């Protein structure tokens, strides 16, 4: 029995994409980073998931851009190098072993990078 990801049809191989990752959420916010977590897709397209692509959208900019430069294999990632007081949205796509990329997950955000610690408290 052949995997759905490599079914041959008249000599062509069909790549079945995975479903999108699920339950994308923000787990932490600092003034220069936002941490994300998600769950793997319910269906991997017939081939194991070997990475995730994280995209961000900054402010009112309508363009999505990659947030990760290396392959992310875990279901959590901290996006760094963000601008304090700027608002961001995020989405994640799954990539399986045959190279098929899923549709994007549900979008999480907007979230604003803020200093969550505030000013130091002095007790005299």
What is the average per-residue confidence, as pLDDT, rounded to a whole number? 86
CATH-assigned fold name: Immunoglobulin-like
By secondary-structure content and strand pairing, the structural class works out as: mainly beta
Please give the CATH architecture.
Answer: Sandwich
H-E order: EEEEEEEEE
CATH homologous superfamily heading? Immunoglobulins
Cα-atom Rg, whole angstroms? 18 Å
* Uncertain parts: 1-9
Share of residues in helices: under 10%
Concise overview:
The protein is an all-beta fold. It is 0% helix and 41% strand.
Describe the structure.
The chain has 124 residues and is mainly β. The protein has a single domain (4-11, 19-112), classed as Immunoglobulins (Immunoglobulin-like, Sandwich). 0% of the residues lie in helices and 41% in strands. It has no helices and 9 strands. The chain has strands spanning 8-9, 12-13, 22-29, 33-39, 49-58, 65-66, 76-80, 87-96, 108-112. The strands form 3 sheets. A 4-stranded antiparallel β-sheet has the order 6-5-8-9, with no helix packed on it. A 3-stranded antiparallel β-sheet has the order 3-4-7, with no helix packed on it. Strands 1-2 form a two-stranded antiparallel sheet. It is elongated, with a radius of gyration of 18 Å. It starts with 7 loop residues before the first strand and ends in a 12-residue tail after the last strand. Mean pLDDT is 86; it is low at 1-9.
């Amino acid at each position: 029995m052949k995997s759905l990801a490599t079914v041959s049809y008249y000599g062509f191989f069909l790549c079945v994409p995975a479903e999108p990752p699920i339950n994308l959420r923000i787990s932490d916010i600092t003034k220069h980073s936002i941490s994300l977590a998600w769950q793997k897709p319910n269906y991997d397209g017939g081939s194991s998931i070997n990475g995730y692509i994280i995209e961000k959208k900054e402010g009112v900019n309508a363009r999505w851009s990659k947030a990760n430069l290396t392959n992310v294999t875990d279901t959590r990632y901290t996006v760094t190098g963000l601008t304090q007081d700027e608002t961001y949205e995020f989405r994640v796509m799954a990539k399986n072993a045959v190279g098929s990329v899923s549709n994007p997950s549900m979008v999480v955000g907007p979230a604003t990078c803020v200093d969550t610690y505030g000013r130091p408290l002095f007790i005299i």
